[in-house]
Every structure is written in C-alpha cells, then in structure tokens.
Amino acid sequence: MLLGRDSERRTIDHLLADTRLGRSGVLALVGEPGIGKTALLDYAAWRADSMRVLRARGVESETEVPFGCLLELLRPALGVVDQLPAPQAEALGGALALRPARAGDRFAIGAATLSLLAAFAEREPLLLLIDDAQSLDASSAEALLFAVRRLLADPIAVLMAAREGEPSLLDGSGLPQLEVGGLDRTAAAELTGLPDSALERVLMETGGNPLALLELAADGSGLGDAPPGEPLPLSASIARAFLRRASSLPEDSRRILVLAAASDNRDVLVLARAAASMDLAVEALGPAEDAGLVSVNAGSLEFRHPLVRSAIYGEAGASERRAAHRALADALPDRELDRRAWHLASAAVATDASASSALEQAGSRASDRSAYSEAAAAFERAARLSPDAERQPRLLYAAGDAHTNAGNGGRALALLEEARAQAPPTPLGHEIEHLRGYLISRRGGVKEGHAILVAGAERAAAADPEAAVLMLAEAAHISFYSGATEQMLRNAERAHELVPPGDQGRARFFASSALGIAQVMAGDGEAGARRLKEAGEALDASEDLRADPRLLAWAAVGPLFLREAEEDRARVDRALAHARERAAAAALPALLHYIGRDQAMSDAWPAAQASYHESIHLSRESGQRTDLAPGLAGLAWLEARQGLERQCREHAQEGRALCKELGLGLYEVWTVIALGELELGLGRPERAIGHFEEQQELLGRLGIVDVDLSPAPELVDAYLRTGRPKDAAVLVGPFAAAAEAKGQPWAMGRAARCLALAGSDDELDERFGEALALHERTRDIFETARTRLAYGARLRRARKRVRAREELREAIDLFYGLGPTPWAEQAAAELAATGETARRRDASTLDDLTPQELQIAVLLAEGRTTKQAAAALFLSPKTIEYHLRNVYRKLGIASRDELTAAITSRPLTKITQNL
C-alpha cells in the first residue's frame, strides 16, 4: 500500500497516460534509502495496463559486470534485434555477449539501445523501470542515458529510482527529477500503528521514512542511540536495526548471510555450491527468512533492502569476506569468468598472479564489448595484484587506454604517469608517451602535449619509425589547431622523412596529410596540394585505413584545403557515412565541423548549419571541448554571413573564450573573422576594419601565412568604402602574389577581385571577368556573389548602368539563394541607385526550423529514408516522423520532393533555437 503518496501517484499516472497517447516521458525518483522509491516503481508497474513492462535494477556488487543491468532490462526485447541496422545489431549483440564482440565507439551501444526500444514499442507501449540507478554498472548507465535523453515521440515511459547524494547517471543529465519525501503524521500512524506518544519521537527521528518507521518502531532500542532533538543518521540507524536482527540468528545463518552478501549472483544453486565448500547448508537461510532479512523465491535470493546486504557485508571481518569470495569464485560456472575474476581479486590478501591474470582477461573481454569503464577497472586492479613488475606498466597503460575510450581523461592520465614512472620497455614506452601527449593536448595543455609527442617520436624513430610518424602527425595536428604554423611544418617534414621506403599505408597517409596541411598553412599551396592528393590516394587504396574511425576527420581535410569543385567529394561522403553507420559519436564532432566548413564554402548553407549544430551538440554531450571550439567558431562565421547578429556574437564569444583557454589559435582567428564579416555585411565597415586588422595581427603572431586566411580582400573592400584607397592599394600586390603562388582558384579569384576593386575603370571587365572565371572552378557561391556585387557597384560608378544592373541582379539572386540577407540588401541598394528596384522576396520559411528539424530536413532531402535518418542522428524513426510533420507544417509542403526543393532552393536566414 502506498500511504500518503497522492502527489507522486498522480505524477506517475500522468506519465503513463501520455505514453499511451504516443508521447515519451522520463522521470527520476530521488530520495534517501527506504523512502519508498521502489514502492512507487511497483505502483507504476501495477498501473501499466496495456503496456509492456521492462524492469531492471542496479546492484552494488555487480558494478564491474559489463552491461549487466542493460541485459536484464532489454532481455524481453531482444527478439526484435534483427530489425536494427546491421552495425547497431552487431554492436548491441557484442556488448550483451550474445554474439562475437568487436570494440567500437562507446556511444554505439546507446544508439542501438534506443533503436531496440523504439522497435519493441511498435508492438505496444513500454514502461521501463530502473531501480537503484546509483548502482548501475557504468556501461549500462551510459547506454541508457544516451537512449533516454533522445526519447520524444515513441510510446515509451522511463521511471528511474536513485538514492540522493550518491553519484549516478542522473548527475548533469538534465532529466526531470521528483524528490520523494517522507510520510505525514496520518500515514505514519497508519503504517506503524504506534500511539501518539511514541509516534512523535519516531517521526521526528525518521522524517517519515517508511522503512525507518517500520524498523525503528519494531525495535525501540534504536531510538536511544541519539539524544532527544538530535537527528539520527538515517542509513546508519536502519543498518543498525538490521544488524541487531541478524546478530540473534544462529551462527550458520549469519555466516551464509555473509556469503550471500558477498555474492553478485542471486542464483541459490551457486550459493549452495559455495556454501558447501564452507561446510554450510543452504537451509541455514531459513532463520534469516523468518527474520525478514532475505527471501527465496523460484531459486533466487533477494535481500529485503540493499541496506541489509551492505550492513551485513560491512560488519563481517576481512578474513570472513575473503573466504566468502574464494568460495564463490570456485562455485561459479565457466560462463561466469568475469564474475569469477572479481571474486578472486576480492579474495586476494596481497599480490595474486592468478587473480591478476583473470582480471586482465576480463578487461580484454570488456574492452571488446565496448564496456570501457569496466575494462579500465579490471586492468587497473590486475596491475595492483600482479607480482610481476614487468606486467604492471602494461596493465596500467591498458587501464589508461580504456579510460580514454570511456571519456575519463583525468584518470587515464594519472595511470599513464604511474606506468611511465616504472620505466617501461619499448615499444610500450612509446605508446604511453603517445597517449599522454594526446590526452594532455586535448585537455588544454597544448604546448606540453606537443612537447611530449615530439620528444617521444624522436626516441621511437630508430626502433619504430611508424610509431614516430604517428606521434609527429599528432603533434602537427595539435599545431594546426593552435595555429603554430612553423612548428607544424617542422613536425610534418620530420614525419615525412621517417616514412619507411615504399610504405603506402598508415604512415604515408598521416605524414602526407600533415605535410600537405602544413605547407598550405605556411604559404606553399602548390606543394601542399600535391601532398594532400597523395594522402587521398593512400586512403583510397586501403580498406583498413578507410574503416579506421580515427582517420575519419582527416578524410575531410583535403577538400577543405584544396577548395576544388568536386575534388575528393566521395571521400568526404564516405567518411561521414561510415561514422554514422558505426554510430561513431566520438569521431563525429571533428568530422562534422570539417564538413560544415566545407559546406559553408559552397551553396549548401542549410547543410552546413545542420552539420555545425550537430557537431556542437555531440561535442557538449561527449565532453570533447577541443572539438566544441571549432564548431562554435565555424557556426559563428556562417551566421556572420547570414547576418544573424545575436547568434553570431554569442557563438563567437563562447568559441573565443574556449579557444583562449585551450590554446586553439587557429579557431580563435575564425571567431575574429566572424565578427569582421558580420560588421561588413551589416554595412559597418569602420567596425569591420578593427576586427580584420586584429585578425591580421593574430595571424602574424601565430605565423600563419596561408593566403586563404588572409583578411586582405575584406580589408581592401572596407578601406575603399571608408575612403582609404592608399591603405587598400598597399595590400593588393602582396596578396595577389601569394594567391598566385598557391595556385588554387579560390584564392586567385579573391585576388582578382581585389585587383579589380583597386584598379582603374579601364581594367574592370578584364579583372572582374578573370575573377568570375576563377570562381566558376570552385563551389563557393558566396564569393561569386560578392564579386558580382563589387562588379556591379564599380560599373554603376563608371556610369555603365545597364551593365551594372545585369551584375547586380545576378548578385541578388545568388545572395537570396544562399540566405545572407544583409548582402542581398546591399546589392538591392546598389541596384536602386541605378534606377531599378529589386523585386521583393518572400521571407523564407526555413528560418522557422529548429536545429534538429533542420538536421532532419537536410538528411531526408538528400534521399535518406526515415530509418536511415534515425540511425544517422541517433534518434528513433517516430521522432524523425514527429519532427518531419513540424517541418512540413512550417514549410507549407506535403511531400519529400517538395522538401528537397525547399532545402536546395530557399535561403536560411535564422534559426530560432540555438544550442
């Protein structure tokens, strides 16, 4: 009976009612032990008529068992696993030990969990009940959190219970929570039957906690443990009540209770085998059952409350606990190797080679199942138990590597430092330095991480040149992010020197990619282009390289730097498709911000907006701050061109602060560019000049001389608008020479525009014609439109109004096709000055879409099915359909063909919901 729980019952009833109507709902019940959270879950199960109930609970002694709770929860739904996309089915089956496992992205299991629940809910509404969420194994907690945060339009209700004040998946999750309080006086009296004189004291001491009321009311001696007016420590007081009850049991009953408390298996047969080895009989549980401490039903043992278990285990002596764990290890069947390993570890007094070896194997199995937190715990414990000093650093490195894959960089670094202090032999020492340098740089120590990688590479160069190449390429990548061009070039050239002769695989790809980017950044565009094409050829020639998730972001670098019309498009598309297919959520943020930049340099601005928002969202969710900063900077740059002033300033401010903190100089430059282009587009050239001059100063300080990042074209435009032709003229010659040296059409087109703007009227047609011809060789419609605007404006000033109108009309059409309203308005103003009024354009309805609606619209417009879009965005098909209905309503359309037309032909001017 749920006494005094009317408010909680109503909340649960509303949650279930919404679910029956096809809406998802998630609620966490939070409260102290014994407050009645489990009873509320039982109430929900009782009220869940016409719903399928899936239930699981966290068990404190099972926190090292990978995906134990997830398997318990999903077992009834596994019949629909074949309906999942093949990679998700493979990932989930491997994680749950139902098929051969292969290590993958830590978020892939969460994506598969969501897909499985959505498929199972097609049959009937679902209610998920998760008790003791604070005791979930880490891999289950991460998968469930990933899934439930994405529920929206599926008939799935999720009700969780967790103890307050204890770490759980709820921390920082943003999930709705309901604090469960104690019973009032009337309900407490009904529950305990105590007279008013005793009830007052019990209520005061327990705060109305139902379990405490029952236990302390039944055993009044517990009330004397604290002076009147001083509150009892509730968990301790309940535990003492249970211990007093256990102390009166026969000795064999008490001993078998300790054995049961040490077990992470509720199977009475396993308990019986372990008990027999300790000369105990399972029948000794009878008195404990009579005392209300445990219950045995259908061959399964349950403690009355988790506090019973923890109290009995904590009260037992160390030698008694070790003996229990040893007996349990011997009693477990061969299929329970992981549990056996942890029992052996708990039975060890000091170092133990057998337990260490068993834990190492358990760690390897957990890693193969993408249960990286459990793998890390197993490897670390194996290192502590190993009597072999040579094995310890290898196990500590394995633990650090697993923590890295789990997103626990701080703990990973601590273990790597410990491993390094033990002077490990090569090649392990090189691997430790590589991972240390990577982690330190990703956590904000850019200079320190870079130094570690370079030093490690030189130590590895003679014995393991490929390892040295990879470390130097990583160091070059760090230099790229930080904008340290000379440093990057040195690292890349050294990496290229160390590539083994004839190597066309991993070392060649990384070295050529790093050197190509470095050469472009240093101003040698022609040589850089050759190296980037060389890297692309190495990637295309190797299936293993194309399937490596660590290389996905690098696959997008070539097109970004080459800026050629169709160069390497298939490679970028393939990398993104592979990342989505494998649910490589950790690799996606970097890949998406590269792709977003590439899309922003073409006519695919809606797709760029979607890519940036997705990159930012995934970066925040996974804690990848070094990928969050580029996403924010790139989005601010795009929003500047769209004239979205508030959004641009917010994202530029957040991005720049993060870049300064992490030492990401290149992307700090991007945020400055964004603010300059914002002011120039809004017709405020004086303000724009300040930002572009700051950009020039920052590039000089960083040593970046890539002509593509030069603010010269924007400064020439701004100087001429503000009556400073001499200042403009100073910039034109050097910029044109640098563009010519790079030899790429994007930079050369911008240079031709500068020459035309600063030149005489006699050169207008030749210079602007040259610029437009070069623009045709790129995908950047915005630059083409800006050149036509500049051309039309110069023609008007040269009193060639008819020709000016032609160019200005073209510019207006191009600008409106992209969506940068301020630039379209500038072109319209120039056209009006010729005596012609631009026709009014209908306001775009794309501007009403939210970021997620836009992402979905873009994917569906590209030809994906609902299920394919759901898998790509880690959502359910019903959530895709829910958003698609909103998209259709906002755009006033009713078909996929109309959606494709809307996405590819209408401007995107604002997004109403920002991340």
Summarize this, please?
This protein has 915 residues and is mainly alpha-helical. The chain contains 47 helices and seven strands.
Helical percentage: 55-70%
How confident is the prediction overall: mean pLDDT? 88
Under the CATH scheme, which architecture of the domain at 6-179 would be assigned? 3-Layer(aba) Sandwich
The helix-and-strand class reads mainly alpha
Could you state the oligomeric state of the chains shown?
A: single chain
| Number of continuous helical runs | 47
Q: What is the count of β-strands?
A: 7
- Residue stretches low in confidence (pLDDT < 50, at least 5 long) are 221-226, 228-232, 907-915
Strand order of the largest sheet: 2-3-4-1-5
Q: Indicate the CATH topology of the domain at 6-179.
A: Rossmann fold
CATH class of the domain at 6-179: Alpha Beta
Report on the architecture of this protein.
The strands form two sheets. A five-stranded parallel beta sheet has the order 2-3-4-1-5, with helices on both faces. Strand 3 (126-131), helix 6 (138-148) and strand 4 form a beta-alpha-beta unit. Helix 9 (210-218) crosses helix 10 (234-247) and helix 41 (781-797) runs antiparallel to helix 42. Among the domains are: 6-179, Rossmann fold, CATH 3.40.50.300; 185-232; 246-332, no CATH class; 425-538, Alpha Horseshoe (Serine Threonine Protein Phosphatase 5, Tetratricopeptide repeat); 847-905, Winged helix-like DNA-binding domain superfamily/Winged helix DNA-binding domain (Arc Repressor Mutant, subunit A, Orthogonal Bundle), CATH 1.10.10.10. Helix content is 65%, strand content 4%. The protein is mainly α and 915 residues long.
